[in-house]
Amino acid sequence: MRKVLAGLSAIIVVAALAAGCFSEHQASTSTSGACSIDLGEGVPGSTVVVIQGFAFDPGEVRIRAGERVTWINCDTDAHTSTGDAGEWNSPLLAVGDAFTQTFAAAGEFSYHCEPHPFMLGRVVVE
Questions:
Q1: I need a labelling partner for 15 at 20 to 30 A (CA). Which of 48, 86, 95, 125 fits?
Q2: 68: phi > 0 → left, psi -120 to 50 → alpha, else beta; which?
Q3: Quick one: pLDDT at residue 36?
Q4: What is the phi/psi pair of residue 47, to 5°?
Q5: Secondary structure element (H or E) that encloses residue 14, with its range
Q6: CA 78, CA 72: separation in Å to the nearest integer?
Q7: Which residues does the chain have with pLDDT short of 50?
Q8: What b/e string do you get for 25-49 counting C-beta neighbours within 10 Å, with b at 16 or more?
Q9: Handedness of CA 124, 21, 28, 38 (dihedral sign)
Q10: Are 35 and 29 in contact (CB under 8 A)?
């Protein structure tokens, strides 16, 4: 009986951890999707783009010069955030990994995922 209860407890913990993914509309951990991220103190003031379903969500973000964008991979496959003109290139992000880029100057920056070039996004810096 102890082993059964221990096994059920482990399943509940894993399910709870796998239940959520951070959204730019929330201040801390969320509970829907393939990962659970708490950016509470990790990246304050950052606009969040969630990678899920082989897409960047939102596909376009607008920020001011000097602000940051954080990409969080909540998908089942590894992805990158890579500036089309080579302005930045994240490492390959496994599920739950995050990458933050600061945008110092105004401009429009298109980006993609290196392993999945059909995944496209854009950062507009005003």
A1: 48
A2: beta
A3: 60
A4: -85, 135
A5: helix 2-17
A6: 11
A7: 1-32, 39-42
A8: eeeeebeebbbbbebeeebeebbbb
A9: negative
A10: no
What is residue 37's predicted lDDT score, i.e. its pLDDT? 57
**Domain 37-125 falls under CATH 2.60.40.420:** yes
**Assigned token pair, 42:** 């990790």
pLDDT for res 1: 40
pLDDT at 46: 87
pLDDT at 4: 36
The pLDDT of residue 25 is 30
- Contacts with 120 (C-beta within 8 Å, 6 or more apart), sequence order: 56, 59, 110, 111, 112
**CA distance linking residue 90 with residue 71, whole number of Å:** 9
Spatial separation of the C-alpha atoms in residues 57 and 72, rounded to whole Å: 10
From the DSSP assignment, how many helices (H) and strands (E) are in the chain? Answer: 1, 8
